[in-house]
Amino acid sequence: MICDPASLLCIAPNVYSEFSIHPETFEFDKKVYWQAIVMAIIILILVFIYVEWYMKYRLGIP
Fold this sequence. Notes:
This protein has 2 helices and 2 strands. By secondary structure, it is mainly alpha-helical. A two-stranded antiparallel ribbon has the order 1-2. A hairpin with a 4-residue loop joins strand 1 and strand 2 (9-11). The radius of gyration is 21 Å and the shape is rod-shaped. 0% of the residues are buried.
């Protein structure tokens, strides 16, 4: 846990990674953010393709 003695503020390390913030400069990391967004979109597309294939198989639609 990172604590600032001047303001009595303690921030857990996982907060920085969850919100893509650099812990020393407090800057937003755009690259990590967009990588997470792109990975989520790819996974969603793959899930939709799988569901479509399963429905075609299950219902017997050519």
